[in-house]
Design brief:
single chain; about 325 residues; MetI-like fold; globular
């Protein structure tokens, strides 16, 4: 038996390949961060290190430091009213806030909140339904199970553009798109349907790796199927569930096609992809503002991945039972 050893040349070549892939993947983010921290006069500088750090775009997007009111636009009668001593500071700020020019202000926090709420709920519902569906695919025997399992994956044979018009007509027909709440609910259902098939597939494959003898012992002890899922399957599958949740969250977080059609009549519930597109095509398209918004948009997925990366290494069922 010949044992092949890795030569130093192969090791160096493999190391250089990994470094090249990492640099290729991280360079767009480094370029984006660099541009977001540069002053306008420094945008033409090819160096990734800004000459001076500019954080004004981040402060504007996060609402740090409110814009000053235009006193020239304040009527004389209002100025006289503000000069009266009976008016409190809070009342004075409320009056002056009406004369603040918000034409150049990008409502990043509103779009961020809309995307966060929509993506979080869609991912949670997708994972919740997928846990029970994947358990039935991997553990239960019933007529037509194979057809149902294959039929779920057939959804991915059709592109989103083919389903856009039928889903839009259905939502209009039942009156969901007539109000912001109904439109939000319709888009939530679309995102859940988009992510549910792959969630079922991923969790179903993982549930099959859990030894059935653990469930058998729980059933013998008197636990029901639902109790077995809650006390045995879910704790042993935290890593897989977290992975599926992040995947579903990313799909909903970055989705643009359905959002651009469903939300076109309600700008107040725009998601971040729509907001960034509107900012890029507006008269206020400033590079540091666009790049700052893009950097802040990527943070939730990065933070979420780093928070659960320890659980993504593998399942917790290894060694749980001795076969």
């Amino acid at each position: 038996m010949v044992v092949s050893s890795r030569t130093p040349i192969r090791s160096i070549g493999f190391f250089l390949l990994i470094i090249s892939i990492v640099v290729f993947a991280l360079f767009p983010f480094v370029q984006m961060l660099s541009t977001s921290l540069k002053y306008p006069r420094d945008w033409g500088n090819p160096s990734l290190i800004p000459e001076r750090i500019n954080t004004s775009a981040y402060k504007e997007l996060l609402g740090i430091g409110q814009p000053e009111p235009d006193m020239a636009a304040v009527p004389e009668s209002v100025r006289n009213l503000l000069a009266e001593s009976e008016i409190t500071d809070e009342q004075r700020e409320q009056i002056l806030s009406r004369y603040v020019d918000t034409g150049d202000v990008f409502p990043f926090l509103r779009y961020f909140r809309n995307s966060l709420v929509l993506s979080s709920i869609a991912a949670f519902l997708s994972v919740s339904f997928a846990i029970f569906g994947a358990y039935s695919f991997s553990r239960l025997q019933y007529k037509g199970r194979g057809y149902v399992q294959r039929g779920v994956l057939m959804v991915y044979m059709f592109g989103g553009i083919l389903l856009l018009i039928p889903l839009y007509k259905v939502a209009v027909g039942i009156g969901l798109l007539s109000t912001p709440t109904g439109t939000f609910a319709a888009l939530l259902i679309v995102y859940m349907v988009q992510t549910l098939p792959v969630s079922l597939y991923m969790l179903g494959n993982y549930f099959r790796t859990i030894p059935f003898s653990i469930e058998e012992a729980a059933l013998i002890d008197g636990l029901s199927r639902f109790q077995t899922i809650r006390r045995i399957i879910i704790p042993l599958s935290i890593g897989a569930i977290a992975t599926v949740y992040i995947y579903s969250f990313m799909i909903a977080w970055n989705e643009y096609l359905f959002a651009s059609v469903f939300l076109k009549s309600f700008q107040d519930i725009y998601t971040l992809p729509l907001g960034l597109r509107a900012l890029f095509t507006s008269k206020n398209a400033i590079w540091d503002r666009i790049m700052s918004a893009s950097m802040l948009t990527s943070l939730p997925v990065i933070v979420m991945f780093m928070a659960v990366q320890k659980r993504l290494v593998g399942g917790l069922s290894a060694g749980g039972v001795k076969e």
